[in-house]
Amino acid sequence: MKLGVWFLVVMLIMEIFLLYFLHENIVDTQIEGELSALQVRGNNHRDVLEESYRSETLQHIALMESKGETDVIITDKNQNIIINSSELDYAEEKILTYDLKNVRRNGKVIEKRWRDEKYISTVTPYSINENQKGYVYMFKSTEQVQKFISNLNHHFIIAAVLSGVFLLLTILFLTKVLTTPLIRMKKATEKLSKGDFSVHLPKMGKDELGELSQSITILANDLKHLKEERKEFLANISHELRTPLTYIKGYADVAKRKNISEEDREQYLGIIYEESEKLSDMIKDLFDLAKIDKNMFVINKVNVQLRSYLYALYEKVLPAFKEKGIELELNCRENISVMIDPMRFEQVLLNLLNNALKYSESHTKTSISVRKEKRKVRIEIKDEGSGIPKEDVPFIFERFYRVEKSRSRDSGGTGLGLSIVKELIEAHEGNIEVTSEPGKGSIFTITIGEMTE
Ligand code: ADP
C-alpha cells in the first residue's frame, strides 16, 4: 500500500507538471499566432495605404475592419486619429497613448497581456514618399482568446481526471497482484517461525516472486526433514544410552547380593566395567558429532608426507591385528604429500582399521594401499571380513546404523564411527565410498586432493 501511494503521488506530480507545461505551450502558441496574424493584417493595410494614400482607401480599410473581428485605427505621426473602424472605447484609447519608440517598418506588438487587458494590439508605421506619415493600429478583443483558453482548460481538466482515475486503478491492480503472493509468503514464513512446517505455496512462474516462493517451500521441507532427523536422533541416543545402563543397573543389582560367589561377582563387575567403557566411548563420539554439527570442529591442515605418516600408524595398529591373527599390509610406493589435519585423519583411519579388525576373522588379510590419480590421492582400506549386505551399504554412514545390531554392540560398536568418519573426510573436502561383498570383504576408499606446490 505504501509503495502504491508513493507511486501514485510521484505519477500525479509528474502528470500535473506535464499537463501544466503542455497547457502553457498551447496557450503561448495560440497567442503568438493571433498576434502575428494581427501584425500581418496591419502590415497589409500599410501596404495598401502606401500604394494609394487617399481618403477612399482609408474609408475602405475602416469599412473592411468594421465587419471583422479586428479593429483598425489609422493615425498621423502624432498619434491623432485619422480614421477608426468602430467606436473607440477606453481600453483602445489607453493603447493609443503608448510610447512608440523603436517601431520598425514591419510593426510591433504593443499589447499582449491577454489575461488582463481587453485588447491585444499591434502597430505598423506607414510612410508616403519616404516621410513617415502615421501609424496603423490593429486591435483584437481578448474575449475570444479567453473563451478558447477556458475551453482548453475544460479539456485539460477532463484529461487530468481521467488519467488520474486510470492511474489509480492501475496502481490498485498492481499492488493487489504484487502484494497477494507476498502476503501469502509472509504468512508462510510466520508459520515456519512458529514451528509449523506444513507450508503450501502455489506455483508462481519463473520470476523473482516465483523463485522466492520456491525457496520458502524448499526451506520448509528442509526444516521439516531436519526436525524429523533430530527427533529420530534423540530417540536413537536415548535408546543407545539406555541399553548399557540397563546392563549396568542389572549386573550391579546382582553383584550387590550377598549369597553369590566371589568369582561371579568379579564377572559381573567386569561386565559393568565394559558397559561403562562403551558408554563413555559413545558419549565421546556424541561429543565429536555435536562439535561437527556446531561447526566447532577446527581442521588444521598441514602438509603431510603420506608414506611415513601411514607407516607410523601401521606400526601402531599392527600388534592388535597380530594378536587376532590377521595379516596387515601397507602399500605406499611413492611419497605423496597431502594437506590434512594429522590428528583428525588418524581418527578416520583408526576407525576404518578398527572396523576391519572387528569384522574380520583370523587368517585373513587387511591392506592399506595408496594410489595417485590425476590430482587426487586414493587411500584404500581393504579387508577380507564379513562384508556388508547390499541393502545395508547405502546406510552405513548414517548415525547409529549397524548391520547386525547385537553383534556390533557386542564388539563394542556404537554405530557412530562411520558417520564421524564421513563428516571428517568431508571437512577435508574429500570423499569416502565403500564396496563390499558379504562373506568376502569390504573396501573403503578415501579420495582427497593432492598437495600441489
Ligand atoms: P560400529 O561402531 O557399530 O562399528 P560404524 O559406524 O563404524 O559403527 O559402522 C556401521 C556398521 O557398518 C557396523 O555396524 C557394521 O555392521 C558395518 N561395518 C563397518 N565397517 C565394516 C567392515 N569393515 N566390514 C563389515 N562391516 C562393517
Order of helices and strands: HHEEHEEEHHHEHEEHEEHHEE
* Global structural class: alpha+beta
C-alpha-based Rg, rounded: 52 Å
Question: Can you tell me the number of structural domains?
Answer: 3
For the largest beta sheet, what order do the strands appear in spatially?
2-1-5-4-3
**CA-to-CA gap between the ends?**
60 Å
Q: Under CATH, the topology of the largest domain is which?
A: Heat Shock Protein 90
Strand segment tally: 12
Query: Helical residue percent?
Result: 55-70%
CATH superfamily of the largest domain: Histidine kinase-like ATPase, C-terminal domain
Put simply, the count of helices is 10
- Are any ligands bound, and if so which? adenosine-5'-diphosphate
In short:
The protein has about 450 residues and is of the alpha+beta class.
Question: How is this fold's topology laid out?
Answer:
Elements: H1 2-51, H2 55-67, E1 70-76, E2 81-84, H3 90-96, E3 108-111, E4 119-128, E5 131-141, H4 142-193, H5 208-256, H6 262-293, E6 302-305, H7 306-324, E7 327-331, E8 337-340, H8 342-358, E9 365-373, E10 376-382, H9 405-410, H10 417-427, E11 431-437, E12 441-449
Parallel strand pairs: 7-9
Antiparallel strand pairs: 1-2, 1-5, 3-4, 4-5, 6-8, 9-10, 10-12, 11-12
Helix pairs in contact: 1-4, 4-5, 5-6, 6-10, 7-8, 8-10
Bound molecules: adenosine-5'-diphosphate.
